[in-house]
Amino acid sequence: MTAYAVIACDQFTSQRSYWDDLNKMVGEKPSTLRMIFPEAYLETSDNTKYIKDINANIKKYLADGVLEDVGPCFVLVERITSYKTRRLGLILAIDLEDYSYQRGSQCSIKASEATIIERIPPRLKIRKDAPIELPHTLVLFDDSKKTIVEPLYANKDKLPLLYDFELNQEGGHIRGYRIDDTKRVIRLFEQLYKENNNGLNFIVGDGNHSLATAKEHWEQIKAHLKPQERENHPARFALVEANNIYDEGINFEPIHRVLFNVDSNFEKKLLSVCHGSDQGCYIFNSKKGKKAINTPSNAAETYKMIQTFIDAYLKENPKSSVDFIHDESSLINIAKENPNSVAIKMPALGKNDIFAFVSQDAVLPRKSFSMGHASEKRYYLEAKSIRG
């Protein structure tokens, strides 16, 4: 199982060595690594062949019994990260008819960050012929009284243990408990929604583009189905891990920026648009070191200000590029390894304001927060059929 579960495909995109080391560790063992497309390889691989191999591996794993159908249930997940935090989650399927990443839509499941439409088509190519989905999406629900996941965890010894193993690449430890009484859990969620008045059941905390891809895939399939065929089609429901935003293990980490191949005036231009009283952010390059920048005390406004500048700069300088880095130490190391780059250290968002923010039909700039450090991201493990 340690070789089987691997981290989300959009992690360590500028650190290909992470994935190269993982490839060596996995070797010929069955692994979700053979069923996903690490984004670190997107620019260097034959994408058509890579996707074809992914689907062949999935079909082989299904035929060989590597992937086993355990029937309808929820899974209570206990994740102990390498940072010694414990995160509790619940694996369940959400109805994509209730989800939208479009602003102004009337739905109970919304994106928390802006969706980059251009990132959906490449992911659709992978999903188009795949018989299953492997999710890394985390959704958040607002349960300050801790009425759902926490009581389940308190009685975990009465639940069948599905898995219990160490995750690779310093991912920590994970356990999964099978929950068969799903109707009781659903009733608890329904009660929670009645008590909350923000109109939201879930907001997407991580994996927004994967969920957006699932939505577009369902819309394409739905267009060719009769109304009665749409009711229970597997592609209508997307597997996610649901987390209580008030779980002690939920920490919102900043997502930093690093710009590659920038001109000598980049820093001057950035500093000219930065304003505010907070100096928790800074820019860094290998020649000049760190320099503090003035930003608004409101972290959301800081992300809006800096990302707006970056988007405009990249439009004017097409040879430059940006990557989003989760750990500050990795940010500095990448900037040191790339002489013509500039790293931008970003602030952390407070989680208490996120539901209020999204309920007002507002979205944060893309990549405004990360639920934990890079190694704490969800590992691919459970899967669900998406074929009728």
Structural write-up:
- A nine-stranded mixed beta sheet has the order 4-5-10-7-11-3-2-9-8. Strands 15-14-17-13-16 form a five-stranded antiparallel beta sheet, with helices on both faces. The chain has a two-stranded antiparallel ribbon with strand order 1-19.
- It has helices at 16-26, 47-64, 120-128, 149-154, 182-195, 208-222, 227-230, 266-273, 299-316, 328-337, 354-359; strands spanning 6-7, 74-80, 86-95, 99-100, 109-111, 132-133, 138-141, 161-167, 172-179, 202-206, 237-244, 252-253, 256-260, 278-285, 289-295, 321-325, 342-345, 370-371, 379-380, 384-385.
- β8 and β9 (172-179) form a beta hairpin.
- The protein is of the alpha+beta class.
- The protein has two domains: 72-251 and 371-385, no CATH class; 255-347.
In short:
This protein is an alpha+beta fold and 388 residues long. The protein has helices at 16-26, 47-64, 120-128, 149-154, 182-195, 208-222, 227-230, 266-273, 299-316, 328-337, 354-359; strands spanning 6-7, 74-80, 86-95, 99-100, 109-111, 132-133, 138-141, 161-167, 172-179, 202-206, 237-244, 252-253, 256-260, 278-285, 289-295, 321-325, 342-345, 370-371, 379-380, 384-385. It has a nine-stranded mixed beta sheet. A five-stranded antiparallel beta sheet has the order 15-14-17-13-16, sandwiched between helices.
